[in-house]
Amino acid sequence: MHSDESVDYGKENISVTVRFRPMSEREIHRGDNAAWYVDGDIVRSEFNPSVAYTFDKVFGASATTRNVYDTVARNVVRGAMEGINGTVFAYGVTSSGKTHTMHGDQNYPGVIPQAIKDVFSIIQETPDREFLLRVSYLEIYNEVINDLLDPAGQNLRIREDAQGTYVEGVKEEVVLSPSHALSLIAAGEEHRHVGSNNFNLFSSRSHTIFTLTIESSLRAQGPDDEVTLSQLNLIDLAGSESSKTETTGLRRKEGSYINKSLLTLGTVIAKLSEGKASHIPYRDSKLTRLLQSSLSGNGRITLICTITPASSNMEETHNTLKFAQRAKRIEIYAAPNRIMDERSLIKKYQKEITKLKQELLLIKRGMTERPYATTNQEDLLTLRQQLEAGQLKMQSRLEEEEQAKAALMGRIHKLTKLILVSTKNNLSGSFPDAAHNRRHSFAESEERYDEQSDLDTSSFPPDRCTDSCSIDLGNGQEHFNICLQDIADQIDLTREQVKMLAGEIALRSSSLKRLSEQAANHPDDFQVQIGKLRDDIEDKKSQMQLLEQRITELGERSSYPEMSQAIEKLTSQLNEKAFELEIRTADNRVLEEQLQSKVTFWFLKASHQKIVLGPQTTNCLIEANDAGERLCAEKAIKTVVSHQENYPKKKETEDAEIEVVSQERSRLSEENNCLQMKNVKLEEEACYARDLAAAAATEIKDLTEQIKKLVFQNTRLSNEALSITCQGKTGRISVSSVDRRLMIPYAVQALKEELRSKREKQAYLEQTVSEKQALEKELKRKLDESKQREADLENDLASMWVLLAKMKTNDPPTSGPVQDVVEITECRPERNVSTAVAPISPQSVESAANIQKIKEQHQELERLRTSGSEDKETDDLKALLYDEDKHAHVCKVCFEAATAAVLLPCRHFCLCQPCAVACTECPLCRSSISDRIVTFAS
Ligand SMILES: Nc1ncnc2c1ncn2[C@@H]1O[C@H](COP(=O)(O)OP(=O)(O)OP(=O)(O)O)[C@@H](O)[C@H]1O
């Protein structure tokens, strides 16, 4: 490689551009203000008028990527096509718009797709040169280089040679059209590391470098002519992350690698901008190491700094602007590269094509200059021997040569297809060979590509029909367009076949004419051959017709089914032809054998009879047994001679046929491969479509749900509106009958809704009631407990009374077997708490002392009452006690004589014995009896 000396390219500065993006919704929502604004090609601070930076170009938020490309990147791309290395890269903080600028999207294609499109337009505009384009696509993720075109290419190493740094083992694909290159990028993007942070949902976590290697040479060049080789690097850097970027774990680790490499880039740029720095730390990061040859001044560089005007990012934007300012000072030297060494792939291909063509020529020549076409007819015996020995050899050699020829043709076809040439001003005059004219042309697809107002990057699925070096894209239109290219090739090929068939027919017609002349004397001998030839000619004609028909069909073809039908037809033709050829070869062999045996017979006979053969003696020296035999011998010799004369021609015809058939076979197998690949692609598409359909079904379901909800809401609202209208009309329904009819379903719906809400309310109330009941029960239980405690206290009080009475009565009762003890037990026998209590028996009541005691008790009760500590229970007890007249305790409920008193939960005493024993609930208040029974002594 050396610099161009004829043109003065001179020094240039890095072109530095700033692109504002509009404020994001997030920033607006947060209440951010614009901290920076565009003033021509100056970026100024809103807050500090003294802060201003001037650049080569500043694009405001409304500028499109096309503006950016046309202004700052096109020049680099054009230079790369002339052999000057070029680099375009986007720099900025996360979410500032780097990926938007470099890749873009369906509506706004970025710099990369536009550069690719431009490259192919330039090829189209340069008819005197031929180009070879290769692409590679790699990412630097966490300081590891990965090949995005080859998932197996991980952790690749950087090497250095005389031309600079390069990545060892990176995959390079030869590209044939814009869509081909874009499909490769789309495939590569699948493998790129992308993650989300709080600024950007799809934040690039790696730097990506898309490299287009361009080789070109003059079309009419000599073997030692120069080839220009250049590289166009299109770089989308990962965004620097500030402390505001909320990241954890893996994202933080990625962020630190990103920041480190960008810091190194900043240092390298700062040092380069100083101009006299001794050591530039390229090796401190993989990014700077890879960009070393570009940054060190070899080629053009455009730096697009993307920024946001948002005040929340003011500091980061300021840093970006400072970085850009420094970069502006770097000087570069843009000169085209010229190479003549082995690195030139285009040269290698061209050499190989020339060599292969020469080989092909030799083979062809060898086939036409075979030694069997001897004119020495003096020694037919030797000829026969040679014929026999050489026949087999020749047959196998022929086959080998055919195979070699087919392989060479295929290779030439492939290689020539890889080299791109313009279809404009086709220099066919200087390249008369068919192979050259069949070089791959992307013009047709390119024109269609131009027709699109914008590039559709999403429509380039990574699928290619590599066998035929044409591209099979998933997108229907593109796919169809590429097929058209194939069809054009097929038409060319079919036309060639038609020409060949026409030649064959002409050959057979002349043979037929000759045989017909010979058959004039002996029609029987040549009848079969003549018939065969006629059939052959007919067949060839019909084949020709079919091929012509196919050309018409190909011209009209617009869909796959027709294509496959035509292929089927051609395949069947090919089979038929192969079959016929086999039959004819077999017939020829039989014919040859017959002729040879005849010749041998007549030679032997002639030599026996001393007949000297020779053209001058043939007519007079034959002495056969009879005239007929002599004539036969003579004829046989003539036939042999004529056969020997015709044999090379026949062979030639057969060779031509074999060639055609093998050509057709290889073409059909290519087509078949192509179709198989297309089938695979269609299957993939079908699979994708199925997935889409499933996703769509889910979405539709969701939407239906939403619609239902909305309808319901609508109904409610209508209902409310109706009721409001009704209210507005002071209770009288003001809607028309039609409206009413329309409203009925809504009203029913609303009533249902109301009913439902009432039911809900009812359920709620019921629940509240039951909760309240539970609470009541609990309170009751507590009340019972407190009652129990109270009763205990009462009991204690009663005991106290007894004790008191005892203490007051000094003389205990002396006479009568009076059981004066009343046992107070608990209602539940198991508790069985017995306490000694006061003697309140009828007998004791009868006694004066006891009456006195009772009176005292009464007094005590009176005292208690006046002190406020008396309650209902004591009242009852008092009533009981004062029922002195009867001396019998009668139940106030059942009026039976009572032997026991039961303290009821309602605080009454029940004096019914049966009740006391049997009743489990209070006859008065109906609550369960769990209280004491006061048993009277009988
Ligand atoms: N000039 C622009 N016009 C409109 N939208 C833009 C522009 N630039 C960026 N955006 C939008 O801003 C968002 C972030 O942009 P982008 O992903 O390109 O940022 P980035 O700098 O590549 O971020 P990161 O470094 O995190 O990958 C995207 O939604 C993008 O569509």
Automatic annotation (TrEMBL):
- Annotated segments matching region Disordered: 430-462
Pfam families in the record, alphabetically?
Kinesin, zf-C3HC4_3
GO BP, one example?
A: microtubule-based movement
The UniProt similarity line reads: Belongs to the TRAFAC class myosin-kinesin ATPase superfamily. Kinesin family. KIN-7 subfamily.
**This protein is called what?**
Kinesin-like protein
Name the domain of life. Answer: Eukaryota
> What organism, scientifically named, is this protein from?
Selaginella moellendorffii
Q: Which residues form the Kinesin motor domain?
A: 13-330
What PROSITE patterns does the annotation carry? KINESIN_MOTOR_1 (PS00411), KINESIN_MOTOR_2 (PS50067), ZF_RING_2 (PS50089)
Q: Which residues form the RING-type domain?
A: 891-926
**InterPro entries assigned:** Kinesin-like_fam (IPR027640), Kinesin_motor_CS (IPR019821), Kinesin_motor_dom (IPR001752), Kinesin_motor_dom_sf (IPR036961), P-loop_NTPase (IPR027417), Znf_RING (IPR001841), Znf_RING/FYVE/PHD (IPR013083)
Q: Which residues cross the membrane?
A: none
Kindly indicate whether the keyword Transmembrane belongs to this entry: no
| UniProt keyword annotations, A-Z | ATP-binding, Coiled coil, Metal-binding, Microtubule, Motor protein, Nucleotide-binding, Zinc, Zinc-finger
